[in-house]
Amino acid sequence: MNILVMMIGIFLILIMGCTNNEESSGETQVFEIANTEEVIGKKDEEVVTLRKHYMILNPPKDLKELKELVEKYSNDYPVEDEMKVIEGKNRTFYLSFYRESEDLPRDWQPDESYMNTDRMEHHKQDLITSIIWSDAEPQREYNVYDKSKEGNINKRLQFIEDQLVE
Fold first, then answer.
1. Is 133 exposed, middle or buried (0-12, 13-18, 19+ CB in 10 A)?
2. What is the radius of gyration, based on Cα positions, of the chain?
3. For the segment 104-130, what is each residue's pLDDT rounded down to a tens digit?
């Protein structure tokens, strides 16, 4: 019986080791953080805003490469069709991309429990890129950040489409 328990334990350790190696392969991945989409705007308001939040695993260190990564991702997975045009309304799109951290792990979910609140806005230190545009201003604005582990901005680049803003 003890040998069986020990063999099962070793088997589980091996499986967990393989899973961890797969997750930390160093490959860059982008995916939407589940349960964080927000649509902001009331019936009587002219503007409706769609906010979506994404995680980038192993983001490129080079800020121009990071901008190109999120630009390609947003082109490959367009959000405009998710929010149909409502007559007389102006749509604004705001996409936020975060790095994985101790406070914001890849499987993070919002928490609105009785004694704890953990929302996306509590993780600005891990925000590394954002894209904003609207029906009225269709040119996309990209903000790309190099941040310290604590969330302090070391360097920021801003682009309007492909033009670097000085």
1. buried
2. 20
3. 999 998 887 788 788 888 899 999 999
